[in-house]
Amino acid sequence: MREEHGFGSDMHNNLLYGGRHVCFGALTDGLLRKTAYYGKKLLIFLGSIFLLSIVVFYISRLAPGDPLISYYGERAERMGPEEREWAKDRLGLKDSVSVQYVRWLTNALQGDFGISYKYKTDVMEVIGGRIGNTLLLGGTGFVLIFGLALLLGVLCAWHEGRLADRVICQVGTVTSCIPEFWLSLVLILIFAVNLKWLPSSGAYTAGRAEDPGDRILHLILPMTVVVTGHLWYYAYMIRNRILEELRADYVLLAKAKGMKRRSVMFRHCLRNVLPSYFSIMAISVPHIMGGTYIVETVFSFPGLGTLSYESARYKDYNLLMVLCMLSGAVVILCSLAAQTVNERVDPRMAGAGRTVLK
User: Fold this and answer.
1) Is 31 exposed, middle or buried (0-12, 13-18, 19+ CB in 10 A)?
2) Could you tell me what percentage of the chain is helix, strand and coil, using 3-state DSSP and rounding each to the nearest 5?
3) pTM to 2 decimals?
4) Contact between residue 357 and residue 347 where contact means Cβ atoms under 8 Å apart
């Protein structure tokens, strides 16, 4: 009896510890897979940023123009040959482009991005004073675009083929074809020049930077252009995706069982569309950001778009590098985020690593 009891206890302990070992091994294996997956994403991001820095640095240096004018103004035009050589040496422009890039990269890795030639101050301070305006315009526009696009898409799908659907589709098609810079000029002409209802440029009136009402007035025209230029594209996408779901077999089965159309659309169709919609939102960030930059330039809105235009125009190398790197980082991050969302929604898109995110 003791032998049998001892044999049973040993078997029980082996099964217990063996099971724990299997569970721990599976947990470790899953953790290693996820670490490898996200480590690969990180390497892609860092590699892309590195290649982008090389391309932007060399193109900006080889483009025509005189960076000394940006730093010294009209004085640069009156400089003699020796004085110009001294000025270039002071700014580190006499070395070869490769040497300049290595020096810039070394300083950037230490958090030193140099000074702006035009503003004579640290690059990050210049960007810090403008980035809030871009986030306000672009961020608010992003929320409005996708909030309204979802509502319009659902509305058009609900009234498919009816008057509301036809009118919204036709108006949306027309507005989406209007260039943003042209629409900006028309709105300025009507509401700022002729009617004098709204300001035509800037983020606020001089001396009223803390007045929220004044800031809202300055946001209306550029916000209208940002939203109008992108709204219908995403609304039409949502409309078509919902209509595809409404024609799916499971919807026909649900209707045959007596389920109401409202329940089918909102509890099933819209629910299946939303994951892909979130992926579209991530992909669209660079698109909307580019539109925001154009609108800022037309309305002289003091954001990163206007700053990018000025840095390229005046050959402000250090400022241009950071702005391009910042914009590029946003684009790459959003693309990787969209890819990750797609792989979670549809594991077939993950390829060899499709089991990582299950």
Assistant:
1) exposed
2) 80, 0, 20
3) 0.79
4) yes
